[in-house]
Amino acid sequence: MMTIPTLETDRLTLTPLTVDDAPDLFDLFSNTKATRFMPFPPHADLDFTRHAITQNLKNPGAIYWSVRLKGEQRVIGQINYLGGTRITG
Hints:
Blueprint lengths: L6 E2 L3 E5 L5 H8 L16 H11 L6 E7 L5 E7 L8
Antiparallel strand pairs: 1-2, 2-3, 3-4
């Protein structure tokens, strides 16, 4: 299994994405304004967000980070690095 590093900038902390991040990401992914230009419709419920995260984490070679303001626990976004992977199911 690949070890995903925690990354830090002056303002942000990027930590490996987990299903535990779903409640904060649901707040983002259920917002029609926030998802306007995303390749999926707004999430209808928290279970869908959990399922989406679980499916994303199955992509071999892909790396997913949760984005937080430095010093805060709340997730404010997500970053994906897909590298040379192919998205599956």
